[in-house]
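Re: that backbone. Tokens:
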């Protein structure tokens, strides 16, 4: 009788000790530490959600490091991802913002232009100025860079957000999922619309 109980206890111990370790991403004092590589990112609360206030630098297949030639004094490098690699890159508990979350944020600060040139909002330059490096939002987006949303636009494309420097506007467009590489900002939690 003791032998089966001992074997059962041993199996239970082995099962619980061999389970995969769960990573958690904590925000402490406005800093997110990615448990996978220890990199730290400032965060800011916008529209009731925590956003990373620096570009994601986590290395995945389908990503590459690129030098940032902007006026940002602290962020000298970014990492560019294909859309599919970007969807796997955010820390545990974080994800790419949906196109709806990006548009709500842009409208809060003034608006955006779509790829056909149609303007939505009343001050497109104000949105650009508020969201880029040293802007009032604290999001610290890099001028001239494009960022992925988590929203697919068919089999081949996904919605991307381009901070177009020479015109000081933000353009929402469709970019090829496989060929284009864009930077990432991540948001905490599940999408508010239930979709991604």
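Recovered sequence:
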């Amino acid at each position: 009788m003791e032998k089966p109980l001992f074997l059962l206890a041993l199996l239970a111990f082995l099962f619980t000790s061999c389970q995969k370790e769960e990573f958690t991403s904590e925000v402490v004092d406005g800093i997110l530490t990615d448990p996978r590589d220890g990199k730290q990112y400032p965060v800011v609360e916008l529209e009731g959600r925590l956003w990373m206030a620096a570009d994601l630098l986590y290395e995945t297949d389908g990503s590459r490091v690129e030098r940032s030639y902007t006026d940002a004094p602290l962020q000298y490098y970014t990492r560019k991802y294909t859309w599919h690699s970007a969807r796997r890159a955010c820390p545990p508990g974080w994800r790419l913002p949906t196109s709806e979350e990006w548009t709500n944020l842009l409208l809060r600060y003034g608006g955006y232009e779509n790829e056909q040139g149609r303007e939505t909002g009343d001050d497109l330059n104000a949105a650009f100025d508020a969201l880029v490096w040293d802007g009032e939002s604290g999001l610290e987006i890099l001028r001239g860079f494009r960022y992925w949303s988590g929203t697919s636009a068919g089999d081949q494309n996904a919605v991307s957000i381009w901070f177009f420097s020479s015109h000081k506007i933000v353009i929402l467009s469709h970019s090829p999922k496989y060929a284009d590489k864009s930077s990432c900002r991540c948001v905490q939690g599940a999408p508010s619309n239930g979709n991604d």
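Residues 36-188 form one domain. Confidence is low (pLDDT under 50) at residues 5-22.
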